Amino acid sequence: MKPSEIIELGNGVEIHFCLDAGDTNAQFTLFKVVVHPNAKVPAAHYHENFDETLYGLKGSLTLTVDDETMRLNPGDCCFIKRGRVHSFHNDTSEPAEMLAYANPGVFTAHYFKDLLQVLNAGGPPDLARMKQIMLQYGLVPVAN
Q1: Which SUPFAM superfamilies match (predicted)?
Q2: Does residue 73 lie in a domain region?
Q3: Is 0.85 surpassed by the pTM of this model?
């Protein structure tokens, strides 16, 4: 068993990568997301090449999928089929955690590491570069 790789994005979001595409013969990826209160979370987006299932572990997140808004509490799950626009935020005073399962395993920890480089570059993040990274990994940002 290998330990999780933790990627702290510095914006109130931590990614604990459990299994990467290379670990599962590209069948799936599995990671825990910790979202602190008022964290800067990803822009609304959809996935071109993979589906995602979210499972609430701790705390509560507000999740929007297409035009439906819901709470993701511990024990709740939500399947997000590729092509569906989604976003989330933590509007509580406590950290929230969810497990994310993406299949097939085309999504890797490199996505978060590439974003981290942009976030750590100093000054305001280069939004054009962040969009380019999202598109490179099959995430398509959608204007709110």
Answers
A1: RmlC-like cupins (SSF51182)
A2: yes
A3: yes
